[in-house]
Amino acid sequence: MVTRPARVQTLFYPYISRPVVVYRDPYNSFFWWWLLDRSLDDRAYWAYHHRYDMDPARYDALVMHDRELETRVQQLESQQLPRNPNYAPTNIDRDLMYSDQYVARSYSNRPTTSGRVFFWVFAIPAAVGTCAFLIWLVFFRRWQVSTA
User: Fold this and answer.
1) Please, which residues bridge with residue 98 across strands?
2) DSSP state letter for 110
3) What's the pLDDT tens digit per position in 103-113?
4) Would you call 15 helix, strand, or coil by DSSP?
5) Exposed/middle/buried for residue 19 (C-beta within 10 Å: 0-12, 13-18, 19+)
6) 89 near 45, Cβ under 8 Å?
7) What is the pLDDT of residues 80-131, one digit of tens each?
């Protein structure tokens, strides 16, 4: 059985028995069910800000869930509010919107200590050595034509 952090258990507990919904985007299935239970404005603001991050099928499902949502999103678009890709509804931490795999991948791309060591011990000396060799080759080496 997969153990989940207490804050995930607390927030998404009512949705654990619902089926897992998979779309081609980074959002969590439990968050999806949580979002469907929010008010029209909460769903509309989230859909407006994340419209181009989410799977089109997810947006279609949101609209099918509530026809007023599309009208509300169009109102927000007509106001030309700047889109905020970091928008999260109130009462939820931003990382809880995303699937566990997406969050793990996001953190795994960060620089590591071994990467820094490799950079300073191997990459910088190799670059300096290559530059020194090219300078020697162009400016200091005597070009002699063979007469043989």
Assistant:
1) 27
2) S
3) 788 777 677 78
4) helix
5) exposed
6) yes
7) 989 998 999 988 888 888 887 887 887 776 777 888 888 899 999 999 999 9
Residue 53 structure tokens: 């991050």
- Return phi, psi of residue 122, to 5°: -110, -50
Distances in Å between the alpha carbon of 143 and those of 24, 130, 131, 132?
A: 61, 20, 19, 18
Phi-psi map region of 123: left, alpha, beta (phi>0 left; psi -120 to 50 alpha): alpha
* Eight-state DSSP code of residue 120: I
> Which amino acid makes up residue 122?
F
| Angular region, 80: left φ>0, alpha ψ -120 to 50, beta rest | left
Q: Cβ neighbours of residue 25 under 8 Å, at least 6 residues apart?
A: 53, 54, 55, 58
The answer to whether 58 touches 25, Cβ cutoff 8 Å, is yes
Contacts of 29 (CB under 8 A, 6+ apart): 20, 21, 22, 99
Q: How far apart are CA 142 and CA 110, in angstroms?
A: 47
Which two three-digit tokens encode residue 20?
Answer: 């897992």
Query: pTM, whole model, 2 decimals?
Result: 0.66
DSSP state of 98: B
